[in-house]
Every structure is written in structure tokens, then in C-alpha cells.
Write a structure and sequence with these properties.
Elements lengths: L1 H15 L4 E4 H6 L4 H7 L1 E2 L14 H21 L8 E9 L5 E8 L6 H17 L10 E9 L4
Parallel strand pairs: 1-4, 2-5
Antiparallel strand pairs: 3-4, 3-5
């Protein structure tokens, strides 16, 4: 019995601990990571109700930093030979810790824009990217940002 408990501890920890992950919205749901749960833990980076916004006195710099994150991701994909055949539209919801480290990067693409192989490769590269990336701003609490996104390769 003692061996069974010891064997189950790593499974329990991996299923309930937070870590740096890139997931489609469907994968997150399958793993029990609902946006409503994550949104209860992470405050909004910016919000129409400024009392709910983490960066309410610093919106312009925050938006600029978020754009830089997306540009840095695009550059990382390009360096790793992931080139977009066509303009590709999607949606992101990114969850950051206080230091700007990405805890979760949830994403989806509009249907029929990528092959399964392309989407898998994108997920692998995104996973690598978020392991080292730090958002340019820090905060006194965890925060999140979502946005539509259009990916394209510049010629």
C-alpha cells in the first residue's frame, strides 16, 4: 500500500500543479483547465473597468509589451522554419505569473487553416518559446491577456 501511495504522488502532483504549458482551448478543457477557473486565479492585464485591471495606469506600455510578445513569437517561429502559407487567424489567452513568465498559453485557429501536422508543429514550437520567454512588464499579481491574432510570414 505504501508503494502505491508513493507511486501515485507524482501523478497527483503533475495533474494538479501549474506549469508552463501551451495548449489548444480543447486540450486545456480535456485536462480540466477551464478558462473560468484560470480567470479566477489570474487578473486581467487590462480591463474596461480599470479597478479590475492590473496595468490600469500603464495601458500603453502594456499593450506595446503584448504586441512585442506576439512579434517575438513570430520571429521565433520564423527562425525555426515555421512559415505561414497564408494569413492565419486565431485567438490567444495567455496567463502570466507576477514576473512575466508565461504559465499557460491557450490558443485556437479558425477551422481548416492548418493541417494537423502544422498545428502540432506550432504547438511544439510554442511550448519551447514559452519556456524561456518573459513578458517585458511585471506586476504584483498574476495576470492574463487575450486577443485575436493574425499570423503571416513577411516576405
Amino acid at each position: 500500500m505504501k508503494n502505491l501511495i508513493i507511486a501515485l504522488i507524482p501523478i497527483f502532483i503533475s495533474n494538479f500543479s501549474y506549469g508552463q504549458k501551451s495548449l489548444t482551448f480543447d486540450e486545456a478543457k480535456q485536462q480540466g483547465l477551464s478558462m473560468s477557473h484560470l480567470d479566477s486565479i489570474y487578473a486581467s492585464g487590462i480591463h474596461s473597468d480599470t479597478t479590475l485591471a492590473v496595468f490600469n495606469n500603464n495601458e500603453d506600455e502594456y499593450i506595446s509589451s503584448y504586441r512585442q510578445l506576439l512579434q517575438d513569437l513570430g520571429q521565433y517561429l520564423k527562425i525555426n522554419n515555421f512559415l505561414w502559407e497564408n494569413q492565419t487567424k486565431g485567438f490567444n489567452r495567455i496567463y502570466f505569473d507576477k514576473t512575466g513568465k508565461i504559465d499557460y498559453f491557450l490558443y485556437l485557429f479558425r477551422p481548416n487553416q492548418l493541417t494537423k501536422k502544422e498545428e502540432k508543429r506550432f504547438g511544439e514550437l510554442l511550448e519551447e518559446f514559452i519556456q524561456e520567454y518573459r513578458f517585458l512588464l511585471t506586476a504584483d499579481k498574476k495576470f492574463a491577456q487575450c486577443s485575436p491574432v493574425t499570423y503571416s510570414t513577411t516576405k
